Amino acid sequence: MTFVCEQDGPPEQALKGLLARAFDARDRVARAFLARVDYGDGAYAVALCVRTVAGTEEMGVVRDVAEAFRQLFGRDQHLDVCFLDDEQEARVRRVCRPFYERRPGPRGGLLH
Questions:
Q1: Could you tell me if 52 and 84 are in contact, meaning their C-beta atoms sit under 8 angstroms apart?
Q2: Which residues of 26-48 are buried (b: 16+ CB within 10 A; e: fewer)?
Q3: Please, which of 3, 16, 29, 43 could form a disulfide with 99 given CB 3.0 to 4.6 Å?
Q4: Domain contains 110
Q5: Worst-scoring range by mean pLDDT, 37-46, 49-58, 60-69, 80-89?
Q6: Is pTM beyond 0.85 here?
Q7: Who wins on pLDDT, 37 or 112?
Q8: Cβ(68)–Cβ(110) under 8 Å?
Q9: Could you tell me which residues come within 8 angstroms of residue 10 by beta carbon, excluding any fewer than 6 positions away?
Q10: Domain region containing 70
């Protein structure tokens, strides 16, 4: 997987806000990125790239993402979810800043 750039715009900002609230409620997501990716087939996709606190895949996170996405986009749209390891996170950071980072306190983690 090649990380191409950050995916951003008005619909994406709405999605990021919903996701940040869901991530704050669960306490499992350390950082999240919304990136355009290339899987090597020449077609781009949008992926929510998540680094969990424990560094593992979390099905609760996937359910939260699906619910937020369903609120904003039609059934003909999809969003890939990938859980990042150290190396993948370093690669995505080269082209995309996190929109969410867990921080202590009442403000939550939405960065932009």
A1: no
A2: eebbbbbbbbbbeeeeeeebebb
A3: 16
A4: no
A5: 49-58
A6: yes
A7: 37
A8: no
A9: none
A10: 2-101
